[in-house]
Structure formats: structure tokens, C-alpha cells
Amino acid sequence: MSLSDLWEYAPAPESAAVGAIKDRYLPFIDGTFVEGGGPDLVSINPGTAEPLAEVSTVSAADVDTAVAAARRAYTRVWSRMSGAERGKYLFRIARGIAERARELAVVETLDNGKPIKETRDFDVPTAAQHFFYHAGWADKLGHLGLGPAPAPLGVAGQVIPWNFPLLMAAWKIAPALAAGNTVVIKPAETTPLSILVLAQIIADADLPPGVVNILTGAGDIGSTLVNHPGIDKVAFTGSTAVGRHIQHDLAGTGRKLTLELGGKGANIVFDDAAQDQAVEGIVNGIFFNAGQVCCAGSRLLVQESIAEEFLTRLKNRVETLRVGDPMDKNTDVGAINSAAQLARINTLLEAGREEGAEIWESSCALPSQGYFLRPTIFTEATASMRVSREEIFGPVLTTVTFRTPDEAVAKANNSPYGLSAGVWTEKGSRAMAMAAALRAGVIWDNTFNKFDPAAGFGGYKESGFGREGGPSGLAAYLDTDDEPVVGGGLLSHTGVL
Predict the structure, then answer these.
(1) What is the CATH number of the domain that holds 140?
(2) 23-65, pLDDT tens digit by residue?
(3) Distances (CA, A) of 277 to 211, 242, 289, 390
(4) Active-site position among 118, 260, 391, 483
(5) Does 490 fall in a domain?
(6) What is the pLDDT of residues 325-348, one digit of tens each?
(7) Catalytic residue flag (residue 364)
(8) Does residue 260 carry a catalytic annotation?
(9) Are residues 213 and 347 in the same domain?
(10) Which of 13, 215, 386, 446 lies in the 20 to 30 Å Cα band around 273?
(11) Residue 21, SS3?
(12) Confidence bin at 5 (pLDDT 50/70/90)
């Protein structure tokens, strides 16, 4: 019997009661929680596959009401308010998130399925940081280098995904408000709860009615929102397929648009890299949030001379990952967000097997309830295979080898996506040269998945365009010559024009 068999982590569950989950939640329109005109939906706990709460959804008429409220708030109140005053509201919201951090972490874990230590240590603190950061910019917009008095755009229509519900809401709402815009935002139908708790925080901060409106519903409501004639700016985070539709629908309207879409990030490990450090970075890059991350390092490129040793170390490390109850503080890899997403991942896994890739899975046991998947590594995966080309959006890593830096660049850039990459080497000159050659919006050197509200985030090619975070993210919500409009540098159905 090994030491690992003798020494096991005792369960350390967080209390679900801390989340104070309600039986039913309502959309937030014009400063009030109201009954929506659409059918109720049931939010499912991915960790148990059991119902968590009912949510009232909106109708097309409710979208009209929310956009009208946002326009009224923009014209009469928010655009006329000084930046310093707007900043005070953002500071209040940031403090409210910090004060209710534990509650928000539990709500996010129950509704999304990610481990409590991720929501507690990353999602919620980073959401608060975005409001704090943008609060500081609210009265300094003239110092962004965009002219002495950059103007807000008006009403922003925003649609966010299910993988980081609270954090994506902060990424979208905070810069829009700091720039002087009002917001109508729709969360994903599978994860609406944390943003509705944020709505309570917004209400408690006495934000003027209509400045932020939160609409619940499925994809049809998102489509109605982004195509609404009363919207001046659209920001979407989600799949490339939906991003294409939005881009097509808005072409010729002149409205501002930013898209943060899918990814197939490459993590490149050279033979001089600190292998143990690189292993930790690879694990974090693909198994954080069970791989349900747009910038996940889902492709591993390892130099041929160390490939065998490195993959052995990597597999040994993956074997130690604890997969299970997301509410347990010891859990490393939580649940897949939904039954539909789990089915999609399994379809791609089967495609990898059929195409001849060699598959390795962790030997960990999985819970009997909920949507779970073992950490998985594909080797011998050629560039033509679906598991190498398509975004799997799960805890699945594909690996290939390379011999020279030029080969590594060629293989890393051989993807329709261009959101993220990581480079692992002790040579600073090599890291900088690789960064210059890689066609990705975010490139990490000897680390991965490090985020800061002051740093812009976004991609190229089919990973979208525009940036979120930092001065470049603020510019996307201001009337400047630098913000891309629909019609320039666009995605096509076959690539990038």
C-alpha cells in the first residue's frame, strides 16, 4: 500500500447555506426586480444534476422596456454625471462584492459547478478588482490618450457566457459604466444566479434606476438584445459560431462591436524550461475550471528531446488532481457545467479515438451524480484531427512535439483561433522572440492564466477582436477612432478577411 493510499484528504465541504439560494429569481429592469414575460427556467446544480432554483425569464417586450430604461438613464442621469460621481458608485459596487464574497463564491459554485476554491480565490476577488480598477478611471478618461474629452457611446448591450458568470459580468459592466454608458446585459441561461445577486448589490449601492438592467433568458433573448435598434454598442463573449451570427447581423449598422470568442491556446515547453514549474503551468492552463476557459492551454507543444520525460511528469501530476464535489475545499477539478456540454466533450473524445490519437485518462473515481469527466490527455494527435482543431472546452489536453523554435511557431499558429499562448524557457530572448512570432492576443512567459484588470485581454482571427480590461478595454466603450466597428478586420465563415 502506497502513502497516497494511506493519506487521503478528509472532506472539507463549504456550507451551501452560505449562498442563501432563493427558490425563485427575477430579472432586474429599471432598478427593480420584476416578473418577466417569458417562461420560467430551472437552474441545475452541475455537481448533483439536481434543480437549484427557478428563474423568471424575459420576453421581447421586456427587452424593449429594459433598453428604454437604459436610454432614459443615460440621457437624463448617467451621461450628465461627473466621472468622479460615477466612480463613487463603482467603488460601492466593488465593496459590496467584497463584503458578500463568501456568499457569491458559494452561489457561483452551486450554479456553475466549478470548485469552491476557484470561485473563492479567483472569480469573486477578480470581479471586485475590476470594479475597483474602473472606478479609478471614471474621472480620468481624458488621460487615456484618446483625446481630452472622450465621449460615451450610449447604451451597451452585453451577452456573457456560463463559464465565468460573475467575472464576465464585471468585465462588461465596470468599463461600460466608468466610460459613462448604461447597460443591458444577458447572462447565460444555465448560470444566471450570481449576476442576480450582483443586481442586489447594485440596488444596495443606490445606482440610479436603468443604469444597469439584467435580462434572463435563452439565446433568443440574447439575439433580440444585440439586434435591438436602441443599442449603441454590443459586447459578446461566447462561441465563435454565435459571434459570426452577431457580426453578420450588425454588419452595416455602424454600431460598435467587440467579440471575445473561442480559443485553442498553445503551451510551448522548450528543453531548457524548469520542468516542474512548467508542469504546474500546463495543469493550471487546461484543468482550471475543468478546461471550460476560452484561453485554456488546450494544446501542449513540447520539445522532442524532453517529451517522454515531461509527459511522464505531467501524467504523474494529473493523477494527484482531486475530481469531485465542487463544494469541497479540497477539490481541484469540479463539474462540467451542463449535460449538453458533457455530451459535446464526449463526442469529441470519441472522435479523437476514432481518428487514431492515443488517449490517457486519470484513474480517479468520479462522483455517481453530476456532470463529471476525468482529466484527459491525447498524444500522437496530428493537426488534422478534430481534437487538435476544435475547441473542446473541457479538461482535455492534446500534445504534439517539435524540434526547433520555428517548428513550434508554425504548429502553434496552425489554428483558426488566436486568443492565448504560453512559452516555457529560461532564455528571455527566446521568450520575447516567440511572443513576437505567435499570433495570439495574450501570451504568458513561464506562467499561465494570470489576469489583471489593468491588462487588455482579447484575440485575433476566430477568437474575435477588441480588448477587455485596461485602457484598451475602456476605449471600446468610448467614441474614438481606435475602436473597431463592424466592417473592418472581420471574421468570415472560412477565416479572417
Answers:
(1) 3.40.605.10
(2) 999 999 999 999 999 999 999 999 999 999 999 999 999 999 9
(3) 45, 36, 20, 27
(4) 260
(5) no
(6) 999 999 999 999 999 999 999 999
(7) no
(8) yes
(9) no
(10) 386
(11) coil
(12) low
